[in-house]
Design a protein that fits this description.
Layout lengths: L7 E5 L3 H12 L3 E6 L28 H23 L8 E10 L7 E4 L9 E5 L11 E10 L1 H14 L3 E4 L8 H11 L7 E4 L5 H4 L5 E12 L5 E5 L6 E7 L4 E5 L3 E2 L8 H10 L16 E12 L4 E6 L5 E6 L11
Length: about 350
Amino acid sequence: MAHDSKAHVLVIGAGVIGLQTALTLLRAGYAVSVVAEYWPGEGQPGYTSDWAGAHWRTHASAEEKELCEWDTETYRVWGEMVKQEEREGRKGESGLAVYTSLHYWDNQAPEIANGVSSLWWSAVVSDFKDLPPSKLPDGVHLGVSFSTFAINVPRYLAYLLSCVEGLGGHLVRARLPTDSSMEAALEKARTLVGGSSIHAYINASGIGARQIAKDEAVEPIRGQTLLVKGEAKCIATRLGKSKNDIRIVIPRPGSGNSIIGVTKEPGVWDTSVSEISKEKILHECKELATELLAKDGEFELLGVQVGLRPARRGGPRVAAEVLRGGEYVIHEYGHSGAGFVPFP
């Protein structure tokens, strides 16, 4: 996109991808409007970002070079943000904080086919260490530790929204039509922001891209997590022997709470709470954060979260398209559970 300080960019969607993109464009000198049905902090089932963990953990394989570059850039930028906040006496303002992360594999997954030397991101993160067998929980095949970022999700989303508003972003709450063409949805959005000429549209509609962009490759991956009392001393991730067997503990910086979980259920649209999954998470995450257990040996449960990760068969769609009406659209969706990590 050619730089034009007067160009007006319209962002569809106010999830973490949409807000971060809007902020980046505003800082680059563009006029930016954001049109979205749901916004941070409302707890809507259709707004995935509210239900995220979240922390920096790459989902990219070594062969996915572009995704590796995005994740590497995010790690660098977040590191600079944390350091700047500390220098300026604003520590924790964005909701980001550095923690040690313990990462375990129960079997020899493709990611570690040749041991830790297979991990492309070992050279990206700070303080990377191969854990000796004596430091591994029972049943773990391999483990590493490294420094990474935990995110207080409500605070981070509020921070992004505040920055967008503070830089003059135009925010419009609306549900765009999805029963016709994408051109019709964009025309409605353009009308909502005043009908002015739009230099480009950013389609950051997440799971909604299935309808707005008519992309049937978009599908949910249901995830259930629990909010428990106490901030864990570190991030912990344990990958089980099956693809979707994952246990995590993520402290929420400055909140006094942590997130534990998690389920991965491809193609499931149901956002109701599963009592079976809840009890399974409460049981299986104990060994990852014993410091959070009360005197009775149990977690103090504060809440249950269910979200639909906006996945896409074939991977994220980050690409430009010129529609029949001449509208210039940049699609930016399909990041699944990695939406907080790809820094635009």
